[in-house]
Amino acid sequence: MKKEFSISLGLQQLPEGPVYLVSSEFEGKKNIMSVSMFAYMSGKLVSVGIAPSRFSFGLIRNSHEYVINVVDQSLIRAVKICGENSGRDVDKFSLTKLTPMKGVKVNAPTIQESPVSLECTVVKEVDIGGHVWFIAEVQAAQAREGYDWRSGLLLKWIGEKRFYFKLGKKVGKF
Questions:
Q1: Nearest Cα to 32, choosing from 65, 67, 77, 58?
Q2: Position 141 confidence tier, pLDDT thresholds 50, 70, 90
């Protein structure tokens, strides 16, 4: 039997989700932000939810581009740094010692150290109050040779506490 409890506690029971580094650029200003509000939509469409107060919000809104960079264990420190600092105040590429690489199809930089980068162009914005979802079409994809998607990380965020998990073993199929 299920027990009723607060909505906040109920939301904390949701399974872990992936965390990504989203890179963007507009008029020579580059930034990286940590993002857990990501959704694969369908076909070649993906989306990220970003609060208007974030520095990356303006870069993406004005350039209509971003890059989804997959995070593996080697990038945990960068996720923390990018989540705790604003691109208005610091150069996150320098601070994290990550390498911006020219995109194949977009002007937004990919991150060389990321095992997978998806270059995206925004096709629609959906304002849900508090965050805007930037729905985008993937224009190009690059993956490190030999990369295994099971190396990606999941993030569980409960209040101020954040935990990282590696993907587990297969337990079934449908």
A1: 67
A2: very high
Angle at 40 between CA 16 and CA 126, to 5 degrees: 105
Instruction: Please report the DSSP string for 79-109 in residue order.
Output: HHHHHHS-TTTS-HHHHHT--EE--SSSSSP
CA distance 52 to 66: 15
- Ranges of each domain in the chain: 17-145
**CA–CA gap between residue 23 and residue 106 (Å, rounded):** 11
Instruction: Give the separation between CA 131 and CA 105, rounded to whole angstroms.
Output: 26
Q: Classify 17-145 by CATH class.
A: mainly beta
Give the DSSP per-residue string, 59-72: HHHHH-EEEEEE--
Quick check: 66 and 135 in contact, CB under 8 A?
no
Residue 125's identity, in one-letter code, is E
Measure Cα distances from 54 to 58, 85, 163 in Å: 8, 10, 23
| Cα four-point dihedral sign 68, 129, 124, 92 | negative
Q: Which residue has the tokens 């390498």?
A: 99
Residue 164 has pLDDT above 90, yes or no: no
